Amino acid sequence: MARVAKKPQYEAFNRRRNCFGRFQVHSSSLSNWRRPALPLMLEVGAGSAVVSLQFSLDNPDWQVLAVDRKSDRLNKAAGGAPRNLAFLQTDLDDLAEHIDLTGQVDLLWLAFPDPYPTKRRAKHRLTHPRRLDLYRRLLAPAGRLRLKTDDQGLFAYSCGVFSDDPDFEIVGLREDLAVSGYETLPAEARAITRYEATWLELGLPINYLEVISAGGFDNMEA
User: What is the pLDDT of residues 102-121, one digit of tens each?
Assistant: First the structure.
């Protein structure tokens, strides 16, 4: 099958009214889309947004925002997506330039983030301690963060980081889901990405971590 050229996907993304970012060509805004009275799920590094799609279908009374730095990935999911699902092309560190979600995120998803395995690049990991400062600000009191990864080093590192942080409590931990059971996970966590299916076929273990925020942004200094 021929690979789809990326430029048309970029252009299609920028035209869609459920898609947002620096290069959008419509006048809608994320701030107008967001309804603070509704619970919010945020997926960071969403890629093709398999988790966001599943969650938005299962939870029509939630709003869901899928964020990734590459719009061609997001565009694959954006066409025909349910109305409660929006897409944002940006880096996590630039999220606040597009919308202020302080204390509004009830569920934050990290599905197969880049492990950045070398120590020199550890600061780029989505579970690095400096990221936890951002998650603290985004999460509502008792908000949850869920992680799936095939990288054993990142999983061990993430468990350690969250265990050492008094503002987070590990409430769910599954090693090797093919053995411990996908059926024990929340519905959206059972959604299998294309890469995940490949790793499972190769016999690589997939691990899952869930943590709860002790108080979200209420614990942050003004």
Answer: 999 999 999 999 999 998 99
**Dist CA 123 CA 213 (whole Å):** 21
Cα separation values, 190 from 17, 88, 162, 206, Å: 29, 24, 23, 11
φ, ψ for residue 141, nearest 5 deg: -55, 130
Whether the model pTM is above 0.85: yes
First-to-last C-alpha distance (Å) of the chain = 53
Candidates 114, 133, 164, 218; catalytic one: 114
In a 3-state reduction of DSSP, which class is residue 196?
Answer: helix
Numbers of helices and strands, H then E, in the chain: 8, 8
Starting at the edge strand found earlier in the chain, the sheet holding 168-174 runs 19-21, 85-89, 63-68, 40-44, 105-111, 139-149, 207-213, 168-174
Residue 114 appears among annotated catalytic residues? yes
DSSP E strands, 63-157: 63-68, 85-89, 105-111, 139-149
- Give the CA angle between residues 178, 180, 185 to the nearest 5°: 90
Decide: residue 146, CB within 10 A, 0-12 exposed, 13-18 middle, 19+ buried: buried
